[in-house]
């Protein structure tokens, strides 16, 4: 099953139509040069009007059955992704994941009425087309999306496998045990991942608390022994209490963790206590949160106080335009980004363009998929680093 993307907050939506000129100038290094480039790009986009909107359901396949996490049952073998294709009156086309309902008010409107390459989507009613509009603009301007954003990040970004679930608990009645988790880790390492995000929290729902905690510890230790060259990230999906996550960390001993994600639903009090406890025990790891319907007030407070290291709000649920708006403020706070991309590989590749375009992305969530309807282009995962396609737009094509 596919986790539903959550909607924009009304506060974010209200600001999208206004350009943050100071942030743009700071990112580009020269307000004058930037303004000239954007003016030329807008002149080219202005030639195009939206002529046709077409939707499709694209089935994608994961390389294996994906099991449970701390809260959700078996995820299955892959999602069905709703996408939208935009065609202009000049014959240009772009496509991308559809965010919500298809808007009925956009046909005939100039691209510059709803999109500005400096910031993205500028009208609320066009937000469902966020990814398709970015792709279309890149195609018309003959540039990858990351170049439209300024190429402020590295050419490639670390990328982790987000597919290490509770596969040891399947099938019901005859679970296969830890060996299947290790097999999946080896397969993902062979695919090019050098970071593995391991789901923990079996004792929250699927096992009794103590046996579940022991299994979490045993799985983590076994992966560390099996693949010593891989970095381990762990994700509790809010399935722990503060004391339980402390006991888990004590249990894994000297196993190093790249980050701890969503051990419990974010509160300032619990995260401050966890940070202080980590310092007292000498364990160095990043703390990451914000995926599941985040409390923005809490996230901002944790970021301001240097408690939270990485924000994870979903790349599609929050939106590409909104991430463009958010990233400068995260940089000012000293907080890294890693947009949640679970579900399908389109989200992984969208995030890779955000990472190369704006920088400040510490790692990208990788979701391996096959799909007969999509040519994924020149995106490349090698030795743990993901490089976005240099082709126009997001560098992917829909097949007939």
Any overview of this molecule?
The chain has helices at about 10-15, 20-30, 30-45, 110-115, 130-140, 145-150, 180-190, 210-225, 240-250, 270-280, 295-305, 315-320, 320-335, 345-360; strands at about 50-60, 80-90, 95, 115, 120, 155-165, 195-200, 230-235, 260, 285-290, 310, 335, 365, 375, 380, 385, 395-400. The longest helix has 18 residues, at about 210-225. Helix content is about 35%, strand content about 20%. A hairpin with a 4-residue loop joins strand 2 (about 80-90) and strand 3. It starts with 9 loop residues before the first helix and ends with a strand. It is built from 14 helices and 17 strands. Helix 8 packs parallel to helix 9. The strands form 4 sheets. Strands 6, 7, 8, 9, 10, 11, 12, 13, 15 and 16 form a 10-stranded mixed beta sheet that branches. It is an alpha/beta fold and about 400 residues long. It folds into 2 domains: about 10-145, Enolase-like, N-terminal domain (Enolase-like, domain 1); about 155-400, Enolase-like C-terminal domain (TIM Barrel, Alpha-Beta Barrel).
